[in-house]
Amino acid sequence: MTDEMTARALRSSWQAAEQTLYSMGGGDVGRYERAVTLVRAVFDELRETESTATLVDRWPDAGAIVAAAAERAGLGLGSLPVDQVAGAGFALRHAALREAETRRARAELIAAARAEGAEWVALHETGDPLAGFADPYGSIRLHLTSGLAIVAGVQPDPATGAVAHTLTVVGLDPLNGDLVDDDPGIADLTYSDCTSFRSGEVALRGLVEEVAAQGSCRIMDDCVVYEVW
User: Fold this and answer.
1) How much is the average pLDDT of 186-201?
2) Is 229 a domain residue?
3) Which of 71, 106, 141 is the last residue of a domain?
4) What is the C-alpha separation between 151 and 123, in angstroms, rounded?
5) pLDDT per residue over 107-164, tens digit each?
6) What is the pLDDT of residue 227?
């Protein structure tokens, strides 16, 4: 079993190999197509690797894996470096595994919240709302009944560069948290201070619950008229 520090370094090296492999060769279309085909073949060789930890443990066999992938694809490496092809293939498989692991974790959070009779569940939360860019805040809170989720974040104000807090509503699969609608037309709000942001988030939760209860919502004055479902 590889220690976490080494595993993190390996994952970084795979990403670097992927970037380098695809940036080399300038306009050599043939080389690029060969690289893409071989990387995909390496990915296919790694399909039975079912966790990121196991993937890290397979790295010492990367050379043999690339050779088997090249034979399966019916292509030689040519001028492509073995370590870069291997790293790019491992990076691709790692991304797929991380996505699957994240999806399973979301589904488990949702199932646990439903079992507890909760109305909302936090699928993600990181950073500090008061820290600005020093520790950027981000969260995703899912309304279990409707599948509508409030996505909160921090980004630079395009006019001033100052910290701006944002709230957006998206539609997620209420069972696993997969994105199904990136703009259901509920809200896309920006706040200049944390107090207003927090108040806005509370109000937005109420709006989502209202939309879920009524099946539609019309809001005038400061907001655009929205229709949902």
Assistant:
1) 92
2) no
3) 106
4) 10
5) 999 999 999 999 999 999 999 988 888 899 999 999 999 999 999 999 888 888 889 9
6) 40
Query: What is the total residue count of the chain?
Result: 229
Q: What is the 3-state secondary structure (H, E, C) of 123-183?
A: EEEECCCCCHHHCCCEEEEEECCCCEEEEEEEEECCCCCCEEEEEEEEEECCCCCCEEECC
The partner residues of 163 in beta bridges, in order of sequence, read: 156
C-alpha span between 79 and 192 (Å, rounded): 53
Question: Environment class of residue 112 by beta-carbon count within 10 Å: exposed (0-12), middle (13-18) or buried (19+)?
Answer: exposed
- Give me the amino acid identity at 18: E
Are 74 and 134 in a shared domain?
A: no
Chosen domain end from 106, 127, 161: 106
Contact 144, 120 (CB under 8 A): yes
Give the total number of structural domains in the chain: 2
Q: Which domain holds residue 68?
A: 4-106
Residue 46 lies in a domain: yes
Query: pTM for this structure?
Result: 0.73
User: Are both 189 and 138 inside the same structural domain?
Assistant: yes
Pairwise CA distance, residues 208 & 229, whole Å: 13
